[in-house]
Amino acid sequence: MMESKKTVAILCGGGPAPGMNSVISAVTIEAIKHGWNVLGIYEGYTHLCNAEKNVVPLTIDMVSRIHLDGGSILGTARANPTKSDAHLRNVVNTLIEMGVTHLVTIGGDDTAYSACKVAEYARRVLGIDLFVVHVPKTIDNDLPLPEGIPTFGFETARALGSQLVTNLMEDAKTTSRWYFAIAMGRTAGHLSLGIGKSAGATLTIIPEEFGDKKIRLQMLVDILVGSIIKRLTSKRNYGVAVVAEGLVEKIAVEDLKELDCTCFDEHGHIRYTELNFPELLKQAVVKNLAELGIKMTIVGKEIGYELRCAPPNAFDIEYTRNLGFAAFEFLKNNGTDALITIQNNVIIPIPFEEILDMNTKKTQVRMVNVNSVPYRIAREFMIRLEKDDLYSQTDLKKMALMINVDPDDFVKRFAYLLD
Q1: 166 neighbors 199 (Cβ within 8 angstroms)
Q2: Which of 109, 110, 140, 337 is labelled catalytic?
Q3: Is 140 a residue of the active site?
Q4: Which residues contact 201 (CB under 8 A, 6 or more apart)?
Q5: What is the C-alpha to C-alpha distance for residues 109 and 113, in angstroms, rounded to an integer?
Q6: Worst-scoring range by mean pLDDT, 112-121, 261-270, 273-282?
Q7: Entry pTM
Q8: Local structure of 42: helix, strand or coil
């Protein structure tokens, strides 16, 4: 009996990232070369969850040059099929009805988890082998890959973000003001740190520096106020602080009560853009500086959306073409239930069960290693209060004089930041 033709479907989940089209292109070209059909699924799991077949047959002519473009020709969405058995059943049944035998998902931690659950449901409930592979995408760089291996899209986002912050640094110097650049990164601070370090920002603040504990908003404010005062003693009344948006989840709930924090996405995450975090931070710092006798112009600026659909740089183009090729080769060799990686120029799939957090049953999140050499170097080049500043009587007197307080009072105000 003649074997039926294999069909691979491709979908994109989560937020956009540079290089998505390149993965789509690489998978499509390789699959067609091997005699497979290729279907592009529009808007992630959105239509599949409703048992809708919103797809397009992909051809080599359609995808041969899209690796140069940002965005995704298939769109993307945050629809979550794991919220109900009905959605999972609809997704699997609709894929099977379309003749799909293999599935490539392109996305971040939530999309990876959904891919894992879809494959598991097909096998456990329907007794069907639906071969699934996930290609790790996120500008946040927070998927559980080995240290030093980026998620695709990160390098392009970092490069463009660094250019934007470099421009802000020049604007800050020219206009004698501060910018608070709030950089994307839901939980981890990789993108903020990468942007801040590359652009030579005055300082960068990321969630990982505070460990597992919650912090008060005042602590974040005092870090910024302390940096501004320290910089003023060097006769520089300007600067740029890069602040990771993930710090919102570090701040004690009571400090956010004045805001409506009830807006969540499909995966239960707070929608940071609804909080107006830059304005909250700016107003708090301006108020504290005024109380200390310092008038400062501060502008809050979000950096994120303008990075996500940028044309991928050369690194991400090559990287994503490699990942797309590797994803198809993995499926062709009957692989399934894994996230695809390239380590030391070797294709290495990581099984889904190895990337799941056993406590949350969600995909693990890779955080910045604050004990690493790269982070230590980043801190060395920041302008922020350090223990040496409080031990040096000369520096301490300068900073205390800047706000007209005794050195002892200055220490009482800021020493807790250095514990």
Answers
A1: yes
A2: 140
A3: yes
A4: 165, 169, 181, 195, 239, 240, 241, 242, 382
A5: 6
A6: 261-270
A7: 0.91
A8: coil
